[in-house]
Amino acid sequence: MGIEQIIFYLFAGILLAAAVSVVTVRNPVYAALFLILAFFSSSAIWIMLEAEFLGVTLILVYVGAVMVLFLFVIMMLDINIDIMREGFIRYLPVGLVVAVIVAAEMIYVLSSESLNRAMPVAKAADYSNTKELGRILYTDYVYPFEIAAVILVVAIIAAIVLTHRKRAPNVKSQNPSRQVRVKRGDRIKLVKMDAEKQPEAGTEGGK
User: Fold this and answer.
1) Measured distance CA(54)–CA(20) in Å, rounded
2) Maximum CA pair distance of the chain?
3) Integer angstrom CA distances of residue 24 from 34, 81, 100
4) What is the domain partition of the chain in residue ranges?
5) Residue 188 Cα distances to 178, 182, 192, angstroms
6) pLDDT confidence tier of residue 105, bands split at 50, 70 and 90
7) Is the pLDDT of residue 128 over 80?
């Protein structure tokens, strides 16, 4: 067994352990941190497969942006751990069945002879996987790429519509435009009142 196989199995083991920890730990912040570890392990495996662009993109996009947003949302929300645990136990049998099916499919695909015959060959030093990925993406897979782009646009529009939807009358909301245009007279009201007389000495309330 060469050094490359040892490194591959090392990162693969870390990836599996982190993926299992994501769905088993009780603290959602720890789950997000384990997911970050899984992303780093996947990125290392992709780099070993000479897919440097995908590995670096995974770290920059998911770890650097998406997971930061996840951690921000998790820390802002008041998550009830007991309710999450009840749902986890309830759907555990279904999750195990799905996991077994996915594992069987992966084993079948990885053990097939067609995959073994199509093992990648070593590329030259000046080979650019970024250029090759762009060429394949915009030629062979241009229609799936455009469909994915349309789906993302629809998701963005749906998020905007849900944000600006009309709320119930008893729900408190903010109007940023009115907050920006506010003036001092709208917030502070000066009321003229007569001066209060100090109680004289010897009377009730005075000393």
Assistant:
1) 23
2) 109
3) 10, 12, 17
4) 123-164
5) 16, 11, 13
6) confident
7) no
Residue range 52-61, pLDDT digits in tens: 888 888 888 8
Q: What CA–CA distance (Å, rounded) separates 87 from 34?
A: 20
pLDDT of residue 165: 67
CA distance 147 to 143: 6
DSSP for 26-39, written as a single string: S-HHHHHHHHHHHH
Tell me the whole-structure pTM to 2 decimals. Answer: 0.58
Mean pLDDT of the 183-204 span: 72
- Please tell me the distance from the alpha carbon of residue 41 to that of residue 51, in angstroms, as a whole number: 14
- If 0-12 CB within 10 Å is exposed, 13-18 middle and 19+ buried, where does residue 107 land? exposed
- CA–CA distance, 27 with 147 (Å, rounded to integer): 37
Structure tokens at 147: 């469909």
HSE-up of residue 121 (Cα within 13 Å, Cβ side)? 3
Enumerate residues 6+ apart whose C-beta is below 8 A from 84. 28
Tens of pLDDT, residue by residue over 156-172, are 998 888 777 666 666 67
Q: Is the pLDDT of residue 127 over 90?
A: no
